[in-house]
Design brief:
The protein is built from 3 helices and 8 strands. The protein has 161 residues and is α+β, with helices and mostly antiparallel strands. It has one domain. Helix 1 crosses helix 3 (93-114). It is globular and about 40 Å long. The protein starts with 8 loop residues before the first helix and ends in a 9-residue tail after the last strand. Pfam families: DUF6301. This is DUF6301 family protein.
């Protein structure tokens, strides 16, 4: 059976605190400022296309693509995404079970720390979202990972699907 590396519940809460520490400078910090504030290392960024974002090593021994910063066309950080596990590229049942277990454990830890989620999106790739004063903190299921995302409220408008 395959084994993948993931953060435990205490690690998930540490990552959440790190991500939430970005709330004051979200939408105003440059990539170098954000990377330094988070303590992450940029592993890919094309300065000719800042709106493609930047890939980072978030430093949790989960790989060189464990973080992502979405940037606007001026290179200011719009949102933050960080994986809670190393990339799981297989679509095998074991990988799906691993992600489900990690999502459940992470949801439990985050709910204990921040209360019931404001929004939930069930389905094949479930999501839980906590609304804050000026941002949304999300626990999301991606094809290869379970991640935390921090996005300003003004970018979270429109219909939720």
């Amino acid at each position: 059976m395959a084994e993948w590396q993931a953060l435990d519940e205490a690690g998930v809460l540490r990552v959440a605190q790190t991500v939430l520490s970005a709330e004051p400078w979200l939408m105003s910090a440059s990539l170098p400022e954000a990377a330094a504030a988070l303590g992450w290392t940029v592993t890919f960024f094309d300065p000719d296309y800042p709106d493609l974002g930047a890939v980072l090593d978030a430093g949790y021994q989960l790989g060189p693509k464990s973080g992502y910063l979405s940037l606007d066309d001026q290179g200011r950080v719009e949102s933050i995404l960080v994986h809670l596990n190393e990339s799981v590229s297989e679509s095998a049942l074991a990988a799906d079970a691993f992600k489900q277990d990690l999502f459940a454990a992470s949801a439990s830890a985050l709910t204990g720390a921040y209360g019931r989620p404001t929004r939930s999106m069930p389905g094949e790739r479930p999501q839980l979202w906590w609304q804050r004063d000026s941002t949304w903190l999300g626990l999301i299921t991606e094809s290869d990972a379970i991640s935390l995302q921090l996005t300003p409220q003004e970018l979270m408008v429109g219909e939720w699907k």
